[in-house]
Write a structure and sequence with these properties.
Blueprint: H1 3-18, H2 21-52, H3 55-80, H4 85-109, H5 114-138, H6 148-177, H7 179-197, H8 218-232, H9 234-264, H10 269-292, H11 298-318, H12 325-353, H13 359-388, H14 390-421, H15 427-434
Helix pairs in contact: 2-3, 2-6, 2-7, 3-5, 3-8, 3-13, 4-5, 4-7, 5-13, 6-7, 6-10, 6-12, 8-9, 8-13, 9-10, 9-12, 9-13, 9-14, 10-12, 11-12, 11-14, 13-14
Length: 435
């Protein structure tokens, strides 16, 4: 495919997804709120460090933001599957608006203790935890099945733009108005996102089945999600294992990038900022690649995931060699491409094979598994960096990515067998028959 045809393919695919008015409103809201998320990530950390001068107290922000989805995510899915998706996302954004605004208000009044700050961060994280599964459960109701990879890539591009613009804008705003006041701006982005959700129409699952069950059957509903993922859809369980191994290395790389920049690449804060941008540019390029790549069935997607993992692992290992700064930034962009390819392919496969009334539960359980491995990766790789140096950690990251690729390759025959048993056919064949 030449450049001209690739560009036309990209334009045509984006036009097909964005032709949906509801998708346009949803994407615009996500774009704004993700920029706000990028603002608050820097502002919250800087605010704690500037007021306490303690690195440990600063890292507690990350811990408090990670615990809710890890511990409560699967159980929240039971509730989220019962609720209307559009109204749920509006309420979450409005509540986050109020809670975030409380931090600078209490600070200005002199009533913001560290305990109150941590409490607000934790409660905000509880509501944020519910947004992702609700959004993922909404997407299959807005587009056709063959557009699932495209819309997931589109939503990932909003996250990427937030990662590119948010931290840079946050630094400027912190210098101009103070870290605590930047949180007002972040709160405003959540409020605007809530307003943009008002015109969106997301069809809800018709009442029936588990939707009519009493709340006392919540445990049974939770078990239904577990049984679906671990027994009925073992193909999705294979994806969970691959994504978990991949997350062990990819998340560790993100959090260890400052140490890698300092100890291996010998660059300062400005250079680190450019490396963050390189990683985000790689994620954005992955979005474009997913538009160009024709969609396939779940086993073909596993081949793509194996390739993405192998490329990312190889790029991480290559970074161990002494490179000029621009070449190192290029390798980091390749790692970003690898990470950006995996998530939309996994999300589309989950959405494609899961009934709408189980989606939030399945995503909650799935995300808990991958997040557990991500936290394990952060802990193990952080310890290895302190004990043995950044080179050992980077080698472990690359090895984990290659292990995910090898595991996906080994599981391919099983994938095809399970797909055959479940009556799955390649996407191209389904389209041909429907035509």
């Amino acid at each position: 495919m030449n450049i001209s045809k690739a560009f036309k393919s990209i334009v045509s695919s984006w036009r097909g997804v964005l032709a949906n008015r509801d998708v346009r409103w949803l994407y615009a809201g996500q774009l704004i709120s993700q920029i706000g998320e990028g603002l608050s990530k820097v502002a919250l950390l800087w605010f704690v460090y500037n007021t306490t001068e303690s690195a440990l107290k600063m890292t507690m922000v990350g811990v408090l933001q990670t615990v809710p989805p890890l511990v409560f995510g699967p159980f929240a899915g039971v509730l989220l599957d019962r609720l209307p998706k559009r109204m749920t996302m509006i309420v979450i954004d409005v509540v986050r608006t109020g809670l975030l605004s409380l931090i600078p208000v209490l600070y200005a009044l002199g009533h913001l203790s560290l305990l109150w700050f941590y409490t607000l961060v934790f409660v905000i994280a509880m509501f944020s935890m519910a947004f992702g599964p609700t959004l993922n459960a909404s997407l299959p109701r807005l587009v056709r099945k063959e557009q699932l990879v495209g819309i997931n890539a589109l939503m990932q591009s909003a996250l990427t733009v937030g990662q590119l613009m948010g931290p840079a804008l946050s630094g400027i705003l912190i210098a101009a108005i103070g870290a605590q006041n930047v949180l007002y701006v972040n709160a405003g982005t959540f409020f605007v996102a809530a307003l943009m959700m008002i015109p969106v129409k997301i069809p809800d699952v018709e009442p029936g089945g588990r939707q009519q069950h009493a709340w006392s059957h919540a445990v049974k509903d939770f078990r239904a999600g577990i049984r679906f993922l671990f027994v009925k859809q073992r193909l999705l369980l294979l994806l969970m294992v691959i994504a978990s191994i991949f997350s062990f290395g990819s998340t560790g790389f993100v959090y260890l990038l400052p140490m890698i920049a300092d100890h291996l690449l010998h660059i300062g804060a400005v250079g680190l900022g450019w490396l963050w941008s390189s990683l985000s540019i790689g994620l954005l390029l992955a979005t474009v690649l997913l538009v160009v790549i024709k969609d396939h069935d779940i086993c073909h997607r596993m081949v793509l995931m194996a390739g993405a993992s192998a490329i990312g692992g190889g790029a991480a290992l290559v970074l161990l060699l002494p490179w000029p700064f621009l070449v190192a930034a290029l390798w980091i962009a390749v790692i970003g491409i690898s990470s950006g390819l995996l998530a939309p392919l996994v999300s589309a496969s989950l959405q494609e094979r899961t009934p709408h009334d189980l989606l939030a539960r399945v995503f909650g359980i799935f995300n808990t598994g991958t997040m557990a491995f991500a936290m394990l990766g952060m802990t193990v790789l952080g310890w290895a960096s302190d004990k043995f140096g950044a080179s050992v950690s980077l080698m472990t990251i690359g090895s984990a990515q290659l292990a995910a690729a090898a595991f996906a390759a080994v599981l391919l025959p099983l994938c095809y067998r399970l797909a055959k048993e479940s009556g799955s056919r390649p996407a191209a064949s389904r389209r041909a028959m429907s035509a």
